[in-house]
Design goal:
Number of helices: 6
Strand content: 15-25%
Shape: elongated
Length: 171
């Protein structure tokens, strides 16, 4: 089983759903875990009525875990349902904060991909993600290219982001 962490305070749902579909097309089983603060996945993926706060549901042959506070909670729930989590070929964990990273990395992450949105509204929230970048020291990560970011606020926004990344060793 490959456990892949997708970390960043950006909307990654389309990318994650498409990745899960591609994995599924290759006849591989996949579990998508929504470990985000706002848990938007519950509004995107249909679920049964009256299923509780945390649940696992299937949509288009892809399993989704929604509403759990840790990977341990996901594993316990699945064990109660007689589902062996180890039978999944891939587990994709969508995380958007240092808190979710701490609670969902406990099983171990085989790969971690970082997504940094440079929009003004998420710069402050991405400071948490920069802390994780500093801790994990990935060789590569993705920064979304938002239109006009280089010119926003007389270039102060981009300079701030660039300075934060340089401070932790990226240039």
């Amino acid at each position: 089983m490959q456990v892949i962490g997708l970390i960043g305070y950006v909307d990654k749902y389309d990318m994650i759903l498409n990745l899960a579909r591609a994995i599924n097309i290759m006849d591989k089983s996949v579990l998508v875990v929504d470990a985000t603060l706002d848990r938007k996945l519950k509004y995107i993926v249909p679920a049964l009525d009256n299923i509780g706060r945390a649940y696992v549901t299937q949509y288009n042959n892809i399993d989704f875990a929604v509403g759990f506070d840790s990977m341990h909670d996901v594993e316990n729930y699945m064990a109660e349902q007689s589902i062996n989590i180890a039978l999944y070929d891939f587990v994709l964990i969508d995380m958007d904060s240092a808190r979710s990273y701490e609670f969902f990395r406990t099983r171990g992450l085989d790969k971690v991909y970082f997504f940094i949105d440079t929009s003004v509204l998420s710069v402050a929230k991405n400071k948490e993600i920069i802390k994780i970048l500093n801790y994990r020291k990935p060789k590569y990560f993705i920064i979304e290219n938002v239109a006009f970011i280089a010119k926003h606020d007389e270039e102060k926004t981009w300079k701030h982001i660039k300075n934060e990344l340089e401070n932790i060793g990226y240039n």
